[in-house]
Amino acid sequence: MSRIDNLGRLAGVWFVVALLLGVSALADDDRVTLRSGDEIAGKVLELDSQRLLMELPDGQRRHIPRAEVQSIVFGEEQAPPVVVRVKVYSADDEVRVFVNGEEVASSDELRGSWVDISESLHDGANEIRAEVSNRTNVWAYRWVIDAGGQRTTFACGIPNRSGCSSQGRDPRALGTMDAGRGWIYLHRREGTVEVETEQP
User: Fold this and answer.
1) Number of H helices, E strands in the chain
2) 191 in the same domain as 151
3) Residue 79 belongs to some domain of the structure
4) Are strands 61-65 and 51-55 parallel, antiparallel or unpaired?
5) Contact 43, 29 (CB under 8 A)
6) Domain final position from 21, 53, 73
């Protein structure tokens, strides 16, 4: 049962919902119109035949006598934000990660900790790819995408020991090679994210 249904049961016959189009409040805000004509945006927390409790955008709570309420328009429930991050666990010598053609962080940042790339993603399909550069020894890498808690690993070879032999290259090849490619499908409104990989 939705939040609207629950509040509707509490309010009983006193509950009035006005379905208005084109309101200026934010899409996820509830909008209360008072009999005085004043409008209040925020989140309805409680509603019964005696009173309405609202949380205002600044975090304050306001009690409103039910008799003063003319109508309530509920905003849409927003899904929790989806966090997508990447981290390079190992590389010989350097891994660079790109989202939709733009480098997301420096190699040092990626190697040191998780880097949140959520703001680099748009709704729908996003290309993510990486390159590994080998200048001295063998070429190898291991990097991970954490998409909403689900992890996808791209790995080949072991740094300083055995190089990657994919793509028909010698494990000791010097230069820059592909280090994994995939797609991140993000739907912020639904709060969902999926990763589809294309291993090199």
Assistant:
1) 2, 14
2) yes
3) no
4) antiparallel
5) yes
6) 73
Give residue-wise pLDDT tens across range 122-157: 999 999 999 999 998 899 999 999 998 899 999 999
Structural domain ending residue among the three candidates 30, 48, 73: 73
Residue with tokens 């090679």: 177
Residue 199, Cα to own-chain centre: how many angstroms?
Answer: 24
pLDDT in tens, 76-118: 766 678 899 999 999 888 999 999 999 999 888 998 899 999 9
Which segments of 30-86 does DSSP mark as H helices, in order?
none
Domain assignment of residue 122, given as a range: 84-198
Distance of CA 49 to CAs 39, 46, 108, 111, Å?
20, 10, 59, 57
How many domains does the chain fold into?
2
Who's near 147: CB < 8 A, 6+ residues apart? Answer: 82, 84, 184, 193, 194, 195
Claim to verify: residue 11 and residue 108 sit in the same structural domain: no
Closest CA to 65 of 36, 25, 30, 26: 36
DSSP state of 100: T
- Report the distance separating Cα 187 and Cα 200, nearest Å: 26
The answer to whether residues 13 and 39 belong to one domain is: yes
Residue 78 falls inside a structural domain: no
